[in-house]
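Page 47, continued from p. 46.
Same chain as before, 301 aa.
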Amino acid sequence: MSSGDSRSSGAARSSDDSRSSGAARISDGAPHGGAAIRLADVEHRYGDVTAVGPIDLTVPEGEFLVLVGASGCGKSTLLRLIAGFEEPTFGTVRTAGEPPVPGRGAGLVFQQPRLFPWRSVGGNVALALKYAGLPATPQRVDELLQRVGLHDVARRRTWQISGGQQQRVAIARALAVNNPRPTTPPATRDRTKGLLLLLDEPFAALDALTRERLQEDLRRVSAASNRTCVFVTHSVDEAVFLGSRVVVLTPRPGRIALDLPIGLPRTGIAPDELRGSPEFAALRAEIGAAVRDRYSPEVSA
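Result:
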């Protein structure tokens, strides 16, 4: 089959699968003026290997999108395309209507904190503020650390805090990058518009208890800030708990197998109550079934 035939048939399958969930109607119908992220017929290759696509996806402002799928399905590739670290082989990627530029308007959190060990905790956050063109005042550093549940640690070295605390620092640093540049008058500035938080399996290396606590903190911070988030995970439970929308990707090349809005309340409910609700269980079952169907031996053969 030719490259053009492959791309057109793949796009049709992706579109059909997405429409079955009803979430694609939200994506396709979202006004482009209010889109934080727009992927149009995106396909990315490494040599002769197609890693992801073709994919069409629109992410509205303030949405918490979770990408779910097995290793090698293209989740992290999509995140790098959105961040501007790579350019798609085919199609276009736009963030806030423009081609993405690394380090501009998007904070990233990786599986490992990747902190600078020669700097203090506060120094790591202050450096992110400086790169964002913002005043790195002690008050602003403390404010960001407190938003992720850290108090009185700014003077400590990174090796003097736990792994979970280090990941909180990484999130605070990403939120610092996401702050708008102070060029727009404060009275008219929209402090969330066009700002992204991109997270690539940030809790995967943590123990279960710390992971749950950080999930709860991230959910709280995202709801309070209304920032647009894209989160990559293997965990269905994590996807349902965090996301306002979940996209399941097929095995390589990654295409959209399921695009599902998550209608769970973002505030006003205890985490344990949410995780134990029938609605949570139903969503977990639906997404889990989509993942299992796509990654069964029959499909992989």
